[in-house]
Amino acid sequence: MSQLGTKKAEVDLPVRTKYEESRRQKTGVFFKKKVGWLFIIVSVIAITIFNFYPMVQAFLLSFQSGMGANLEYVGLDNWRRLFGDPTFIAALTNTTIYLLIQVPLMIVLALFFSVLLNDPKLKFKSFFRIAIFLPCVTSLVAYSVVFKYLFGIDGIVNQFLLNFGLIPQTINFLADPFWAKVVIILAITWRWTGYNMIFYLAALQNVDKSIYEAARIDGASSFQQFFQITVPMLKPIILFTSITSTIGTLQIFDEIVNITNGGPGNATISISQYIYNLSFEYTPDFGYASTVSYVIVILVVILSIIQFRVAGEKK
Amino acid sequence: MNSLKRIFIYTFLSVAAIVSIFPFLWMLTSITNKSVDVTQGRLLPGTHLIENLKTLFATVDIVPALINSSIIAVITTFLTLLLASLAGYGFEIHRSKGKDIVFTILLLSMMIPFAAIMIPLYRMFGSISETAPLIGIDSLGAVILPTATTAFFIFFFRQNTKMFPKDLVEAGRIDGLSEIGVFFRIYMPTMKTTYAAAAIIAFMNSWNNYLWPLVILQSPEKRTIPLLISNLGSSYSPDYGVIMSAIVIATLPTALVFFLMQKHFVAGMMGSVKG
After folding, report:
1. Residue A33 has pLDDT above 60, yes or no
2. Shortest Cα distance, chain A CAs vs residue B78, angstroms
3. A80-314 maps to which CATH number?
4. What is the distance of C-alpha B145 from the center of its chain?
5. Does the pLDDT value for residue A206 go beyond 50?
């Protein structure tokens, strides 16, 4: 009996500790989880206050109208007003033109540069890389003012083209509806191509060089290698950069304001500039301005979904 | 064929490099020339640098603008690094299903166009202006707050944390460090490169921010550098030499930050791409 008792005690002891240990571990896990939330809580609150809450507010505002603080609900009036508003239609058209031409142009250029610069045999590699990235250190406002002067009627670009006999007379780039848009597109491409290139260069570092070796042995040309190895391998990062560039170009503001200020007429005005003008330049109409701003939100959502779909199908 | 290809590649890259560098060369030569020479397309260095700088400091309030921009950029960068790295660490090291959902929701905020939230933010800061003037309209605090936490940097830190050896967290716990202690004593020193890369981007973003300060700042003495340059650029009788001097001075800090920390920057970017 006593033997049995001691045995029982011997068995009992570890069982109890195990139970206690598991309890302690459980509270430990629970505690750890709680601590994890402590790490993120400030950011979550800040992003909610400064991003999500204003989003909801802007949505509510888009159904209100009135001057300054005297706002009242007007239902869908603002949304109807959009379609008959020539300035809004001009802003939407211009922004779409910037987007359709500038983003693909920049992504293709950036990909092209990164592939060329990834060639181990290339000389002066870091010079080229730094040179092409250099525009990214400028502030949007500063480079915009520089571009405005470069393309002015007595600017250096006109003088250059004249001296080389490329144009018969000076072009007033910024006063011409077509050329003004071209200057804006050139300016944004100049500023951001190197930025996107850095992402591709970083991603290319992770692509296994032996894949290219194998392709070369199989007789694949540089173009085949580019389209059948590089582009598929970089697909996630191309998707990332095209979405961020799309969001960026949809919101374009600094360049427009500082190069052309939307002119001539409304030939270069962007949606963001129109929102700013509606809120702070004209008699403030926060309600209608919010409606216009939601057009950008809708465009961002639609275009991101399309880009995800396209990237998903390509495989 | 092969040498033809090489000639094409070098020509293409050289043209790209020249186009990229040319505006900088023009800026740098312009600050040494008279306004007349700049308009005549002079591309050689002149002797007017001192005069340009004298006129700049005498006629333009560039010093207060530099101070305002520096205060804003330094505080924003500090807050961004602290909050985003804490969150990125929390999401990755203390991973849980609930937190993954929160993370996805936070990422959605990256798609919110600033123009869409600018008006509600303006009204929000307007409504607290009287009770808390330090973060109300026309205050540097109001410039800082909405830009100090962004989902992009949380994403950036989380991606980079994937390369952080998790054994170090365990080791720290065994050594008796608290969870916060592990973060400050082990994670922060290990992730210096990531912090450096994030610091560059955050500093540049803040230094160059234009739209939000334009909306929220009103009095001329609160002006930041981009607001000042935008103002100079839209003047009717511009003194090009002086304006270019202001632009060069405004570009120097970001250019310096970038060149001093270039290696960290590329390494950090690679970390965020790898994940």
Report:
1. no
2. 14
3. 1.10.3720.10
4. 15
5. yes
The minimum CA-CA distance between A2 and chain B, rounded to whole Å, is 41
**What residues of chain A lie within 8 A of the CB of B204, using their CB?**
137
Residue A21 — pLDDT band, cuts 50, 70, 90?
Answer: low
Together in a domain, B67 and B54: no
CB contact A70 to B (< 8 Å): no
Q: Same domain for B92 and B116?
A: yes
Is residue A45 scored above 90 in pLDDT? yes
Query: Is A250 near chain B, with CB under 8 Å?
Result: yes
Cα B28 to Cα B264: distance, rounded to the nearest angstrom:
27
Is some CB atom of chain B closer than 8 A to the CB atom of A139?
yes
Query: Of the candidates B26, B99, B207, which has its C-beta nearest A40's C-beta?
Result: B99
CATH number at residue B250: 1.10.3720.10
pLDDT computed for residue B61 by the predictor: 86
Residue A184 C-alpha, separation from nearest chain B C-alpha, in angstroms:
15
pLDDT value of position A6: 43
Domain match, B46 and B75 both? no
d(CA B67, CA B253): 12
- The total domain count for chain B is 2
Closest CA to B142 of B226, B78, B186, B76: B76
The ipTM, to two decimals, is 0.87
* Set of chain B residues whose Cβ sits within 8 Å of the Cβ of A261: 234
Domain that includes residue B214, residue range: 61-274
How would you classify residue A165: left for phi > 0, otherwise alpha for psi between -120 and 50, otherwise beta?
left
